[in-house]
């Protein structure tokens, strides 16, 4: 039945709902659905989603060509701090590397007096050291001490510590000592889950490499069990079907490989959403895009240029820095469930604490006792008195009671209280959007905002005002964009090697050799994923800096032989990127030397993207979509038409005030704005002339 396989499925598991999108590769037809998430057994919600979407298409598991999955298992484990006791083995004399960290206070704390250092991932009594030392080139200064290694392994075995991370000084340059330690652990403590830094991150900076390795070890058992469970259960529906898991770097990896690289799934969901929005906006003709993924608890934003989301290796999850390549996502606690509260000084605050899905906003059937952003929207009439097409009724009265009580303490009317909550939430989102643009040397006004997620589009018009954005694009089924994004991503593996050298002293032969070795690793991995050599694509980059700087700027490196002219092109690209990012460069100052730091290769196995289907035009104008009207508060109460988005057609223009509704989300069109439907069913929000 191999010829019958034709459907690819993307599944994004969130805290409340599991979103599912299926694409028929023969016809281009898309089916979408949602099913409640099952936190006690996430695999159950996953499989329910597969069955539900196949039922919609009238097909069986035999028709499935591949399943791609975005998961928050690793992220949630870190954010909730649910880590088992971990052991740490490092080089003698460096047992305090986790305590010393970067010797710096995070941004946002002007005075270290107010900052409380978070508990470290491994307490001091679970750190063991081993004699042996390499220098930064990988040359052995002192031999590996096997007796120390055996003592460390036996200590953790006797203490019942079954998760261990190993990070030796300069192991990025040579992994001999770490591999020797791994062999000792396998002999002396065979039941242990072990991560070694040279397999997780071959990059210098001992603190970040140590923490990244320990995080990888910490999440390995749970991610491994979760992925293996789904693989087994999926075989009941679609035996042997390829099963991919989304990675933080904007690629996917087979489930069989992910269990060996669990840390790569950290920002799985937000990465998929950014890529889905990038493809949708690119097809609509926009190459500079800001994505805004609004959920119940938070909003994730990122920047996309020429279809490629920005990548970073300076990310973190919770308190833990992770130097793995990840899409540069900024998350702010501004979702539909964000709670409005009064500070001790008596000022109104919104978030980051959220009512979540349980108990949820006050307007929910068994809602909480604190007003939220959703309560403000429902009181102002900007969302209907129900969610998901009527599945969840909302109580306007309960929301009004909570907001009136809060307004009484502030001395504000009901409407002004609700508007204040939405204004603060909009500015929280706007500040996140500034972080990924202005803070990166980009002009926010050059971008098209693309909003998705259940709550992503509710504040779009206000964000356009605050940031001076030219337009906002709202895709169809915005709540399912992250699941759709899973169907647009290639298989991708990243490899890095630190090679520090001044540009003027660069050993081109060594650089070429390191790139060749990294490409060899990438090709071998893609071979294992089933990609022929002719289909594989290699992407080379390098991290450069000015001598004396603490951090680097990443720039592309052309394919082919790296001769002196090609190396000079890389240096010139660095000067240009530095100027864009920081506003200056030293291209014309020979006294300021350039330094190469890291060489990187991404191995990419292309996957067929779903076709974007243009919609058929319809006659009759927007009247066919009008479902009624209700009183909505913008600057004042006004009788506002409500429209069914699925009844709109290409070319339709909806002028505000209006509220456009669909199964999973709502788009309030403010007075002075218009929403135009494009050929693919996207809504394009723009300000009317003269407004």
From TrEMBL:
Q: Which intervals hold domain Hydantoinase/oxoprolinase N-terminal?
A: 8-188
Q: Residue limits of the Hydantoinase A/oxoprolinase domain?
A: 209-494
* GO biological process terms on file: glutathione metabolic process
The cross-references to Gene3D superfamilies, in alphabetical order and at most eight, read: 3.30.420.40
Residue ranges of every copy of the Acetophenone carboxylase-like C-terminal domain listed in the record? 510-680
What GO cellular component entries does it have? cytosol
Q: Fetch the Pfam families from UniProt.
A: Hydant_A_C, Hydant_A_N, Hydantoinase_A
Q: Which GO terms describe its molecular function?
A: 5-oxoprolinase (ATP-hydrolyzing) activity
What's the protein called, per UniProt? Hydantoinase/oxoprolinase family protein
- Native species of this protein? Geodermatophilus normandii
